[in-house]
Each structure stands twice: as structure tokens, then as C-alpha cells.
């Protein structure tokens, strides 16, 4: 598990982790050239939505000469116009007046309540229950094959993305947070559900945990015969590659990965990269090499985000770079209907054009990627294209994964809408009265699948 010389000589390679939070925000945004009123507005946004960055991102990834327009800066630093102006002004006034924490939290919570903190039925549809109908904490089971587990010690990140759809995990409200340290309960749930073939550790970021903690969650799962894969959802490769190279437990962590692979399970490292600049440092390339050498498969994914990666050249570069380093392009997501979606969302028609342009410029080895995909309440819905059928312009879509397994792989159609940015902005096409996952209106009618008589 040797470290390559270039990575070892990186200025950040041997540094201890240092986090920057809202108390450092004014200093850092001043470095980006923001005026006093602009910095106050950013602080107001950060009162509502979480902010955290670290020394590696600040020193190695952000081009401060290009800030505040640098894409990595936008990726981690709140923007003044991410929230409605009236909300920002109200909280900025409170900050200027020296309001106490209680008053600020009250104002922030009022804004948070309007931001759909748990989209896609996470709270009311995804949480399984015990035989006594008690919710099982820290577990989501939306799709038959996959259980999501939120380990308590992994519910933070090395840095927070401004567009994070799980922002509610990080704002200090226990009612909004998924987490559990009940290892036995999680293992028993998986053991008693033979349809479950994979467990996804998510958060937050599971790789914020040390090896001694994460191994306690993973090792008991290796004894479950019907479990085929263990997934780890993480942005640590992009935000703190030291975790796999120079951190004190880096080698122990890699040995744990080897143990998973040697047990006969697939270890899927679900790596979140939002921009090709995150792959530039030698340190992250070395981290990728070391993780792959354990036998883990690294699959890459990210949402399309306005002002950060909303152009085809960025995605083409990102997929090519990932392929070159042995990773598998996996998903292009659509920004979810939560938090500052209106600020970051790209219309579906535009997202599809960007995806298609990038897709047609990469080799077949990179065309493992799927998208643009919406992780919505009924499932993962992929936009397959825009076409005209019987004189009507439509989106062609299908379910990659679905709450109802019968919907998986079945195409359906929606009226073309150049402004639509989410599944629920769409309307059925070709005379359909409802989409396949919806309850038909009184009197029945078409369910959104194609009517051959209209071709």
C-alpha cells in the first residue's frame, strides 16, 4: 500500500484535517472579493443552510483568483441569492442587530420549513417498521433490493455542497435527521429480508468515520449469505483524499475494503464528483488508485447544477477523466426538489441536451453513465429523449428503479415542457389522464403508456 512520490509531496498530503465553519465565513468570503453587504447576505444564507469546508478544498481546489466565480468555490460557499431576497434580508437584519441564537434559529427554521427538507417520501414512505409498527431508526428501504443505512457517526461531511439534497441532516434539528448506531438492529433487518442484496451506507458521509467505527458496521454484514454488495456513498475522494492516503488509519481502512472483497461481496464505492477540477490534484489520483487496488469498484455520480457543471464539455471531461483513472461513470442526476432547487436546477430539456452532447462525445466504455435521472417519490426516472409522436412533442422516460417493481424499465411519455425542472412539473402526453404510478381519475382512462393506435 505504498504512496506514490508525487502524492506524498503534495502540500496537503500530511496535514491534519481542519474544518472551516460559519465563524470563518466572513474572512473567507472577503478573500473572494465580496463587499461587506455581500458577505452579510452570505452569512444570512448560511444561517439557514449548512456551511462547512476544509483546508484541502480551500488550499488545493479553489482558484481564489477566479473566486467567487470559480466552480469549486460555488460548490461549497453559499451564494447570496440562493434563497428568496425577503428571507435573506430578514435574517441579515437580525445578524446586524446582534440577535441571539434562539431568535436566529427561529427565523431560520421558518425558512427551512418552506424548503421541503425530506423529499421523495423519505420520512413517511421509506422508513420500515418493526412488528409493533415502530419506525426503525436510521434505515430506509425504498427499493426491494437495497437498504440505506445512516450510521450515527457518519452524519457529517468533510465539506458540504451548497446544493446538497440532504442538507436537513446538518442543521441541528433532531426531527429532521436520519441516524442510528443500532448495528444489531440493522444487521437483523437485512438478515430477515432475503430480497435485500445490497446495503448502502450513506449520510452525511460514512468515510468521515474512522476505520475502527466503520468496520463495526460493515463486518457483521459479511456473514449474510444473500447480501451481494456493500455500497459506500462518499465525497471523501473529492473533499479529503488524505482519508485513503496519509490519514493515520488509511491503510487499515483499505485493509477493511480488501476484507469485504475477499468475503465474496462486491464493494461499490459510490464516489461523488461534481466537477473535473476535483480530480486534478495528484493526491486524489493516488487515493483513487489505492481504493481500486483493494478490489473495490468506484462508480461516479453527481447532479447537474446550474453555474457549476451545466455544460456538456464539463461532463465530457469529467467522464473521460474518471474512465482514465479506472472509475465507472454511473449517474447524472437532476437536482432534487429540496433546499434551493430553484437556484440550482437546470430545466429537464436543457439537462437532456447537455447529457446527450457529452454522451455522444465519449467512448462506449464511458457510456455506462445513466441520466439525466430524477430520484423522485415513485422511483428513479430517466429522461431518454425528446421526440414527436402523432404530431405531439413529448419527453420519453422510463424507470431505472421504482418503488413498484412492475414499473421498472417501462417507458412512458410526458408533454414537452421547456421550463419543467422536475418530474412533478410534467403532465401526461398522448391522451393519457395520469402517469403509470398515479391512481387513475374516476372513470378510468389511459395510464401514460403508449397507445399503439396513435402511432
UniProtKB/TrEMBL annotation:
Residues 141-365 form the Radical SAM core domain. SUPFAM superfamilies: Radical SAM enzymes. InterPro entries: Aldolase_TIM (IPR013785), Lys_aminomutase/Glu_NH3_mut (IPR003739), rSAM (IPR007197), rSAM_sf (IPR058240). The keyword S-adenosyl-L-methionine applies. Keywords: 4Fe-4S, Iron, Iron-sulfur, Metal-binding, Pyridoxal phosphate, S-adenosyl-L-methionine. Its cofactor is pyridoxal 5'-phosphate. It comes from the Bacteria. PANTHER family: L-LYSINE 2,3-AMINOMUTASE AQ_1632-RELATED, LYSINE 2,3-AMINOMUTASE-RELATED. This is Lysine 2,3-aminomutase. It comes from Nocardiopsis coralli. The lineage of its organism: Bacteria, Bacillati, Actinomycetota, Actinomycetes, Streptosporangiales.
